[in-house]
């Protein structure tokens, strides 16, 4: 029977780093962000629905212009909620399809990597939720370096998500990603040893 591990974390905490550690240990990853990118390719039903809802300015040649769409939805909370409602059935269908495929292959462990695991209700599909955390100063520094934004913008992006403390209360396991990659890897290996 497949055990599904939900992996979540706030922006800039290093969830992708932890996801890579699970993958390096041989655990298949269902990446919700990657699914969203695939759904937004030119010509898909999801692409057409987004263009219909937000106008032709978000229509890119190969896919939705995520930068332009982001400018629209992050400036207006109602539009962000509209986008989330529009995307949810497409994402949910793709996630469940992949879970079923891996279960049919009798894959023992699978990670569902989803930044909005709790917010979107995907945690209900999982057997265990792992929350990635890091020091708040480090979190802001990572966002400013990675996304080339100001400290104020980084703080604003963090504020649009559930806080780390709320997610930690809901999670079964916490991985602190404030240290080195080696320290993070050891936490992942220890968790997998306990699950296998």
TrEMBL record:
GO BP terms in the entry: coenzyme A biosynthetic process
SUPFAM superfamilies: P-loop containing nucleoside triphosphate hydrolases
Gene3D superfamilies the record matches: P-loop containing nucleotide triphosphate hydrolases (3.40.50.300)
Keywords associated with the record: ATP-binding, Coenzyme A biosynthesis, Cytoplasm, Kinase, Nucleotide-binding, Transferase
EC identifiers of the protein: 2.7.1.24
Catalytic activity: 3'-dephospho-CoA + ATP = ADP + CoA + H(+)
Pfam families named in the record: CoaE (PF01121)
PROSITE patterns membership: DPCK
GO cellular component, one term: cytoplasm
Subcellular location field: Cytoplasm
Binding site for ATP: 12-17
GO MF: ATP binding; dephospho-CoA kinase activity
Biological or metabolic pathway of the protein: Cofactor biosynthesis; coenzyme A biosynthesis; CoA from (R)-pantothenate: step 5/5
Record's function text: Catalyzes the phosphorylation of the 3'-hydroxyl group of dephosphocoenzyme A to form coenzyme A.
Family, similarity comment: Belongs to the CoaE family.
Protein known as: Dephospho-CoA kinase
Species, as recorded: Nicoliella spurrieriana
